[in-house]
Amino acid sequence: MVALKVEDMKQFTSGLFIGSMFDRFLVREADIVTFNAFHMDGRVRPGYYTEEEMEERQIGEYSAWETMKPVCFSLIKGKRLPGSFHIVLQLAKKQVERFLADRNLPVREEQVSGMYLNIRYENGELYCVTGTSVNFFTLDKSLDEEWDEAVRQFFRKNGIPVSI
Questions:
Q1: Does the model's pTM come out above 0.85?
Q2: Which of 1, 55, 87, 113 could make an S-S bridge to 133, C-beta 3.0–4.6 Å?
Q3: 21 vs 66: CA distance, rounded Å
């Protein structure tokens, strides 16, 4: 786990709320505080979509950020900055599988409960905190270390300056 302070909030929030930088991530939850406090659970409600829609759109247990982004953006846009926001993004299962294979890690995809990016804006500062969850006990931190580095590389690739 590593906490990265975003140095250029305007560039980051533009990539988050307007661009497509985070679209492939899934949303576990989002909390946005403006004139009210809004809490969104990213879990797709059973029965909302038909089986055909779920297959066609490749909808799983959680909504993609691409789907929830317009709703979140509508809550924060305007002349006033939000009081705060906290968004928990998760790497999709297919991406976890590819991540593990590309790095030859000693963990199987079914052992990984989640690979997360927690985005928190509060008191005029924006932080991204990485995290992983596995469903077995291990002292091996190679998954955490690889995920931390992958997130740093993701930010470098997208031109987002961060500091530790």
A1: yes
A2: 113
A3: 9
